[in-house]
Structure formats: structure tokens, C-alpha cells
Design brief:
Length: 646
Amino acid sequence: MAENNKNYDASNITALEGLEAVRLRPGMYIGSTDTKGLHHLVWEVVDNSIDEHLAGHCSEITVKILKGNQISVSDDGRGIPVGMHEKLQKSALEVVMTVLHAGGKFDKDTYKVSGGLHGVGVSCVNALSEYVRAEVRREGKMYVQEYSEGIPKEAVKEIGTSTESGTTITFKPDTTIFEELEYKWDVLANRLKEQSFLNKGLKLKLIDERGEELREEDFFSEGGLVEFVQFLDESRTPLIDHPIHVSGKEDNVEIEVALQYNTSYSENIYSFVNNIATREGGTHVSGFRRAVNRVFSKYGEENGMFSKLKFKIAGEDFREGMTAIVSVKVPDPQFKGQTKGELGNSEVTGIVSRAVGEVLSAYLEENPKQAKRIVEKVILAATAREAARKARDMVQRKNVLAGGGLPGKLADCSSKDPVECEIFLVEGDSAGGTAKQGRDRMFQAILPLRGKILNVEKALEHKIYENEEIKNMFTALGVSIVEKDGERALNIEKLRYHKIVIMCDADVDGSHIVTLILTFFFRYMRPLVEQGHIYVAAPPLYQVSKSKKSVYCWSEEERQNAINVYSGGDPENVNSIKIQRYKGLGEMNAEQLWETTMDPAERTLRRVTIEDNLDADRTFSMLMGDEVPPRRKFIEENAKYANVDV
């Protein structure tokens, strides 16, 4: 073994002071430095204001997007204390703004419950911003302190009087840390709307000052979670007259649940702890599911409604067509994992189960007609699940017996390394043939899909596994459905391609097919989306040519720029320019398709991500469900983004 002669002693140990660690490793504190991390800065500040609301001292929060993509968050709470901190001998405001894990939320007398995903708070925002201004209105006076990269520019100073109380934090994210610096209205609006439902009675306002015209929207809910469920189910047909509402408190744990049954085939349970979304669920969700299974099983059996079934009802059958919000307030939440996406407090399971069980039992007894509808839906779900299991087993057994059973239309690649392999799901046999000719056979596989696949949003599950195109996708990808503890999950251990690229025509029909395929992945193969395996190809809309020169264009703006360049700005020269509109992939030859859409060195692939599960669920339901009015409204608002020839 070779010796390393370099000394390793105390001088090699680096102790980062203050907020240096945050700037050095920002991903450890806010998850990432992409657009998700950028928006996380806003959530950290907003969460502090919401904690003030939970403590009973804040009724209104305003978030402003200022010019230059700066953010201002203002509340009417008590205002951050500005007095001298006894231990650190500096203003409490400066401590809160510059010291990690410092703040009132660690004192249970100040905040009984508090949010904050990573618990690093506003000091982390300060560290990752090139400029921050903290303004405090408190006890009739106004105070301010400014910072640069987390370092105070000067001491906290009193700048005047104020008849109001509260805090305003204004910050400009550091351009050297974040990959992009554009705040998205929809991301901010969706989160604030969600928080208005979770905090009924709290007024939230979003203002965008970046454009020529001021954009403004208010968020306020009197009905809380009941309104939340109705909002999520706006595009679905309800099965019962009104959502079931649960509210209770035990051992200082507050429970609130709202659930609604609809005629869809999907289960949508969203959970929160202290207003923070828990994407992986946890003990509060386990308690909810336990109560639903127990109460409905007992009701169905006691009323003889399951007696004729030849198979056992599973837990998932009770939740098909259910939309539910499970929210708990826990004084000392214990989370599993670094991202705090799963609640681990074991005592919460029983607390939620008892509260939900009591209300559900009373509801079923008091509403026999509604109860009958729900149980009939459960029986239909169980019957469909059994049929789906048989159809799925047929597909998976056929694959095993056939020694792989890859679809006949699949043109596979030579490499067997999933990491370097990619598969293109191509619209139509014609485009599929062109793609097969233009691809790199070493790592690119082609699977042509015939027309529009089944709309899984409106289909029983066994029909999905009987659909030829969907069966081909399952077998080509190498994934399977497995059952464990009565619950089903997607097994992607044998995934054959780490890039799954949806490649459709650049027109309205192509966009519809992309949406159909994405709906299928979201509903039945969501782990592939969550782990970043799904992409959408971006074929060009135009080819602009003059003489022997040509350029591809992906937008109307690029087309116009190309015309201007080739014409030299002279309108008389425009007639000599040839413009080809590609309405379909089949209009390109193999070489063109390769160099514009498939060549890794030149192409543009859009990775499909889920920024907000609730918003994605609601959007797919609206686009692909039965209710027409919400879809019409969406189309009218977004028609300008469609590739339509006029």
C-alpha cells in the first residue's frame, strides 16, 4: 500500500463559521440550487409568517415578486424581537437572521407547533442571498437591518414609528449560487392557495410587479379542508353529497381530515404535518387508512353487502375514487429521512385512527343512502381489481414464458446497460420507421405506438392491461406490478432504459397523445416520473431555407428571426425564402429527425417532473376526466401556447 506523505493534523481541519457552510453546500440545506431550491427560499420565509398565524398573532401575509426577481414577504404578526440576546450579546433580530437553528420555534412556549421543511429558516435564505433587508414593526417602532451574503452591513437600527406590527423580509437570491433566477407565478400561487386551505381564515396575497401591468391574486378559505377537497375534485363527479369532515384533538395532537368519494378510479390522499406536505405519508396516513379499512369492512359485513363476493376486499378497494386531505399539528414531529417527507411519530397512528373511525362510523349510520353508494363503489373496485390482476398476470406470465416476450414492433438497441439506453415512444408506424432508420442502434430503441392510447383516466384497470399499446410499453420497459401487504407497487428494478422519451408530432393531436401517455405514467408508473426517467422530445416546427442555407426553428419567434436574417431585413427578399412547417415527424427524413430531435449533442429533451402532486393530479383529472366546463376554461386560458396553424 502506497504511503501518503502529506501530513494530516489539526491544520487540515476546516471549521466553517456562521453561514459559510450553507453557501458552501447549499443543496444540503434547501435540497437543490435549481428552480425548486429557488422557490424553497420563499417557503422558508412564508413558513415563519404562518407559524405566527398558528400561534394566533397573524391574519394576513403578502408575497411580492419585485422587479429583478427579488421577493418580499410581509406579515402582520408580532414582529421579530429586536432586543439584546443575553447569551450572544447582539440583537435578537440579527441572531434569527444570521444563526442557523435559532428562532422562536424551538421554544414551545412561543410556538406550540411550527413548520419549516428543513428547520433552517430565514438565516439560510439570508446566507444564499446577495442582499436581504429585514424590517420589523414592533411596539410602536420600526427597525431595520440589511445583509449581504448573510453578513450584516450594520447593526439593527430604529428608523421611525409604526402603528402596525409585523415583519417584512426582502431578499435577492445570489446569482452565483442558483442555476436560474426566475420566480414562477404558478408555483407560488399554487403553494399559497394550498396554504389558504390549510389555514382557514388566513388571508394570503400574491403580487407580481415584474410586468408592465401589476398582477395580483388573493387566497382565502372559510371552509378549510372541505373546500380543499372540493377544489381538488372540481373535475370529478362526486359520489356523495358533501365531503366528510373530521376534526379533533388528543394529547396536544390536532387532527383535521376531509374526504370525498367520486366516480373516478384513482386514490388521492394528501397529507400534511404542521402545514408542511409529507409526500411519503407516515404514521398519520397509516392511522387514516386503518380507520377507513376497519369501519367500512365492519359496515359492509354487518349489513351483508360482501357475502356474495368470492374474493377478499383489499384496503385499496376502500380508497378507490377517494380524495382525502389528512392534516395534523404535532408539537414535536419526528421525521424519517433527510427530506422530512414521512412522519414517524408512532403515537399519531392511533390518535388519527380513533378520530377518523369515530366520525366515519357515525356518518355511515346516519347516511344509509350515501353509505350504500360508497360500499357499492368498493365492491365494484374489488371486482375490477380482481379482473385487473388476472389481466396483469396474463401479461407478465406471457413475458416470462416467452423468454422476455418483447413487443414485435420494438426495435431494441444493442447495449444492455439501462443507464446508457433510451427508448423513444413514437407516434405512428410511419414516424416509427423514420426513427428506426435515423437512430443510433447502439443505445436508442424505438417503440411505435398506434394512434392515441387508451385514456386511463376514464377506464377500468383491467381494460388498461388489455390495451395493446399499454401492454407493449409494460413489456418493453421491463417493469411489473407487485403486491406487498395488500398494496400494489411498481417494480422498476428491471427497468431496461433510464431515458424514456415520448416523441410525437408538433401539432394539437401530438400534444393530445403526449398528454394521454403522461396521464398513464402519472397514474400507473409514477415512480418513473419521480425518479426522472420520463422525457418529451422537442421536434422543430419549421425549417427556414434560402439557397443552400437552412435553419430549424422551434418557435414562431425563431422562425421570424430566421426570416429577418435571410432577408437582410428587406421585405422584397422574403419571397426567395422557403418555409416548411413540420406538422408531423413523418415529414422529416431520417437524417433530419436525427439531427433535430434524436442526436444527444443537438436535441432538446424536456424532463418531466412533478413540482406539486396536488396540482398535477387536478390538472390530469381536468384534462382527461368527464367534466367539460373546467377543461373548456383551461383551453381558453392556454390556447395561445398550442401549435395551431391558422
